[in-house]
Amino acid sequence: KNPSFEKYSKCPDGGNQIRYANNWSDLIDSAFSYGSEYLNTCSNFLADVALHVPSNVGFYQNPHSGNGFALGNFYYDKTSPFPPSPLPINYRDYIQGRLISKLIAGKTYCASFWINYIECSGYAHNKMGAYLDDGKINGLSTTPGSEITTIIPQVYTDSIIKDTLNWTKIEGSFLATGNENYISIGLFFNNSAISKILTNYCSASTQYSAYLIDDVSVIPIDLAADAGKDTWVEVGKQVQIGRVGDTTAEGLDCKWYHKGTLIDSGAIITVNAASSINQIDTYVVVQNVCGNITRDTMLLKTVGLGIPLLGGVRGGFTIYPNPSTGVITISPHTVIPQESIHATLYDLLGRVVHQQKLSFNNKEAVLKLHLPSATYILELSNEEGTVQRERVVIK
Rounded CA gap, 80 and 90, in Å? Predict the structure, then answer.
């Protein structure tokens, strides 16, 4: 429900505040003096430097995407000869998030999250993972910070995560039982089963690990790539392409190509108009869901800012009635040039819902539309690619 920790009830201003990120919490939520942290660029550097992003007392890191992420202490070396850290013996953080809906029994899903090791952390280790269930994991312990090692996570890594510069993706596929509506992230193995290294980046007395978590996703493995509908953009402007409006898409692993060159990543990207009108650019998205690679293509046409009619007049049409019941009259202000005028109707997501070449009888053209009641964008274009656009309402 909040895959990249962007939605929050309050900017972080102290410790143990993962609950400020909407739909996220510690497994055992309490007033315990320790707990998973929520960090966001909205936090006040002067009020609490430990929560500031990207500059922090323990690390320097930007979110994998957006403005927020989580931080947890997921491992503790209870046999360490070093002086004790501030954390209790055997301490572990686990963060838990809600899914949008229960998974479908018998369907294969890909669960993933991005992780980053922070500089002021004593140990880097493997076995970081994710466990999905109906919330019963919350009853396995009543002590905040205690180990949970009696379950087997559906997804975990055998690689020791020690990169403090780049974010690393942990992912895996699994067959759903149909009861899963929570995802819990942490370390679900006994210390003896964990491979670890002492990094000593900041202090040898640090006995625990600390990792950042961002962009969590649970996706059907057969989800197809989606570059978005073919659309237009005006000269000098920008437009978003991809899964625009899909609030669950932040965690998707998507790479975007233009003319064979990698230009960006993410489920939604912003692109610029071409330098000349009538140019059509092709954008290709390559999506990786646990090794299932799919591709999709969209076409982006660059158009002008208004139809130049005789005498250099722009915006030379009156469109009425507006609102209408679906019958719309288009009346030119002056003589119609010889070139054809085309009408294209878009919904507010940029999808084409109607196209028509206009025929002007008695200096007027009529559109007869059979569309749901909504607001649309009517585009009138000539053969040179210049356009006039109006917002129209069908009731």
Answer: 11
Q: Output the tens digit of pLDDT for each of the chain's 395 residues.
A: 999 999 999 988 877 789 999 999 988 655 455 678 899 988 865 556 666 788 887 788 999 988 999 999 898 877 665 555 565 666 789 999 999 999 999 999 999 999 999 988 889 999 999 999 999 998 887 676 778 899 999 999 999 999 999 999 999 999 999 999 999 999 999 888 999 998 866 765 577 899 999 999 999 999 999 999 888 888 888 999 999 988 777 778 899 999 999 999 989 999 999 988 778 899 999 999 999 999 999 999 887 765 444 333 445 788 899 999 999 998 887 666 555 788 999 887 778 899 998 887 767 888 999 999 998 888 888 776 667 778 899 99
C-alpha pair distances (Å), 384 with each of 44, 272, 306, 308, 333? 52, 20, 11, 10, 19
Total-model pTM: 0.73
C-alpha distance from residue 314 to each of 304, 305, 317, 384, 385 (Å):
11, 9, 9, 14, 13
State the DSSP string of 343-380: EEEE-TTS-EEEEEE---BTTBEEEE----SEEEEEEE
Which residues, in sequence order, are CB contacts of 131 under 8 Å at separation 6+? 137, 151, 152, 153, 154, 183, 184, 188
Chain center to CA of 299:
22
Q: Cβ neighbours of residue 137 under 8 Å, at least 6 residues apart? A: 27, 96, 131, 148, 151, 182, 184
How far apart (Å, rounded) are the C-alpha atoms in residues 17 and 42? 14
Torsion over CA: 156, 159, 165, 169 (sign): negative
